[in-house]
């Protein structure tokens, strides 16, 4: 069984979540983690996780969707309220993080992410982290906060040294569609060399298209294709790899490791 640890099945381009989930189940993807992106999306995320037992959620503010005129203080205090009142199916804080490749004030991103770290620490929840060209910033903010609740750095691309520092901070490395591209040599080498206990799989659907599906929306049902690529990069047997990835995913979100 597979666990898609990062997919936005609430996005309109994926259509009816029920259909997406059914197609995923048919492809052996039996659990999914749906991270919110904006304050507006929290209600829908909460509703989806309450309707579908295979889906778990995270609440947060994605750096992409921050804006200079947003009521930041009020959004963050409402995030605090939403987490305080969360259902048991909300198992993480995110999607949150930093992105050096977008035109959003970096200081604002840091302020918002720092508050996510504080809330995750306070509610003893792991973080679902977005990081583009910002691994060192993420690391120093987590270190300053003495953050120790774990989490996933999703859609990881980068060097082995960066990955190992994140793992030492207690984070897992989200392995997505980028490893399906032969040109992603550095990331493929990194993922091949990391301890298996540190890896989890994700599609980031509808984003991060898998090789062969460029220009199309990505879907959780394609997670096994990422698994196949990972299998080629690693030395473990298919069963070893599959069961350890499942275990790692349940572990990071503190879910029972049952129903294999
Ligand atoms: Zn995402």
UniProtKB/TrEMBL annotation:
Keyword Hydrolase: yes
Keywords from the named record: Hydrolase
Pfam families tied to this protein: TatD_DNase
EC numbers, comma separated: 3.1.-.-
Domain of life according to the entry: Bacteria
MF GO annotations: hydrolase activity
Gene3D superfamilies xrefs: Metal-dependent hydrolases
InterPro entries cross-referenced by the UniProt entry: DNase_TatD-rel_CS, Metal_Hydrolase, TatD-like
PANTHER family linked: D-AMINOACYL-TRNA DEACYLASE, HYDROLASE
Family: Belongs to the metallo-dependent hydrolases superfamily. TatD-type hydrolase family.
Protein name: TatD family hydrolase
Species name: Vibrio zhugei
